[in-house]
Amino acid sequence: MNHEKTPYTDDTIVALATATGVGAIAVIRLSGKEAITLSDKIFKTLSGKSLSEAPSHTVHLGTIKSEDQVIDECLATIFKGKKSYTGEPVVEFSCHGSPYIIQEVIKLCLSHGARLAEAGEFTKRAFLNGKLALNQAEAVADLIASDSQAAHQIALQQMRGGFTSEIEGLRQELLNFASLIELELDFSEEDVAFADRRQLEQLLQRIKTTLQRLVQSFSAGNAIKNGIPVAIVGKPNAGKSTLLNTLLNEERAIVSDIAGTTRDTIEETLHIAGVTFRFIDTAGIRDTQDKIEAIGVEKAKEKIKKAQIVLYLYNEKENTTDEVVQFVQENYRKGLKILLLHNKTDNEYIGLSDFDKEIEEKLNHKEQKYDYSQLRISAKEKNNIEALKEILSSYAKELTTTESATIITNIRHLEALQQTLIALDRVEEGLATQLSGDLLAIDIREMLYHLGSITGAVSNDEVLGNIFSRFCIGK
Ligand code: GDP
After folding, report:
1. Does 457 score more than 80 pLDDT?
2. Which of 166, 227, 354, 382 has its CA 20 to 30 A from that of 428?
3. Which residues participate in (6S)-5-formyl-5,6,7,8-tetrahydrofolate binding (predicted)?
């Protein structure tokens, strides 16, 4: 279904746009054809002029009244015609932030014919009225949720357009080819070719390069948006909780002398140099008879699979070098950063010891070359923690670097890009084997469908429902 030209629903919606609870100001937002006329019925400007008479983009002081009772003295900001966030008339009342006032004003709007907005409905209208592409609308939610400088930057860039025009441009070019090929079908008797196959090949090549670049940017984008998952592992009592506390500089995880007390995984976040790290504390990773502990062990293995960085804690008294080597061998995979932390080296020389060097030698003698770093620390005495942070920071730089100028962070976009590339391969294959126009057109249409689903040029109600229901009410 193509929503671009569909006139959107006629009703006027209302919702609190600011956070719930007591605040200095609460903004109540109305959007829809009747937003201004409805407001005139409940809001009297101080000047006596109606909002319908006032120009767009103006702010008015006045009172909101329910019958004869004044509910609040507040400001009304008006946006007329299509020149608003939603692309339809909008009024925003900036009231005093009392829950009672908010409730009364919304009730009043409802009694005058508005209905409560659904989650994300304002942004959905902005999309349906052609104000935002779908991926831009999604970036609005990301922007609101962004909690680090890097995540904020990406969301802002995407909300302002990001790769929308690039994708739309390529889609339009492809659409022309699809039309030409389909036109050939009408003249199938005459064996004509309107669509230049060589040009099509070149276009496919350009699309492929662009899409592959975007797909590759996802892993960096994801690390920036959701944080880099870090697993802290080691035997019980290796100092995992202590290290986590030291890094976070506060007592959130429970530190205990009894082996295996950190049974549940705890997730904490830490920001270093504008990047979020998601630390995952786990129970020990030893083989164990203890049932409850065993759940923790399983979890630790799972977490390592999910992690992009793993911090493995060991020390000379409680580990053998073979144990450490085995850990690296068992858990190494391409792309995973392994940092071996020799803990409990309280106030000792911080260079590598013979024990550490033995680990290094053993790992270097393996056929497989492992990518890891080694560092001596004391989680308890906070020795070498700055060096640890520096290593984390350098890992973060690697994990968040991409050659792509635009970065994608949304799994829906990633899937659509991958689907487009699959269809693209089929088109290329079809061209190589001189597949008939009608079959070629089917694969091109499929590419168009997936490309269009990113920006929302093609969409359906289910997809839209899914996207916008994740927004909060009032957005
Ligand atoms: P976990 O089971 O791996 O989470 O280990 P904990 O963080 O609970 O630490 C176990 C014990 O080791 C506690 O008594 C800590 O105080 C102690 N510990 C942790 N790190 C260090 C350290 O760097 N030096 C010393 N001396 N003790 C430590």
Report:
1. yes
2. 166
3. 29, 92, 131, 475
The residue whose CB lies within 8 Å of the most ligand 1 atoms, and thus the one to mutate among 232, 233, 235, 237, is 237
Question: How far is Cα of residue 81 from the mean position of the Cα atoms in its chain?
Answer: 32
CATH number at residue 390: 3.40.50.300
Tokens of 397: 């730089």
Mean pLDDT, residues 92-109 taken together: 96
| CATH number, position 70 | 3.30.1360.120
For ligand 1, whether the C-beta of 385 sits within 6 Å is no
113 falls within a domain: yes
> What phi and psi, each to the nearest 5 degrees, are found at residue 320?
-105, 160
Q: Is the pTM of this model over 0.80?
A: no
Give the integer Cα–Cα distance in Å for 191 and 187. Answer: 7
Ligand 1 binding pocket includes 262 (Cβ within 6 Å): yes
> What ipTM was assigned to the predicted interfaces of this complex?
0.99
Asked if residue 137 belongs to a domain, the reply is no
Q: Quick one: what percent of the chain has pLDDT higher than 90?
A: 52
Average model confidence (pLDDT) across the chain = 86
Is the CB of residue 320 less than 8 Å from the CB of residue 329?
no
CA of 349 from ligand 1 middle (Å) equals 19
In this structure, which residue's CA is closest to atom 24 in ligand 1?
344
Band (pLDDT 50/70/90 cuts) for residue 267 is low
Residue showing tokens 């923790």: 296
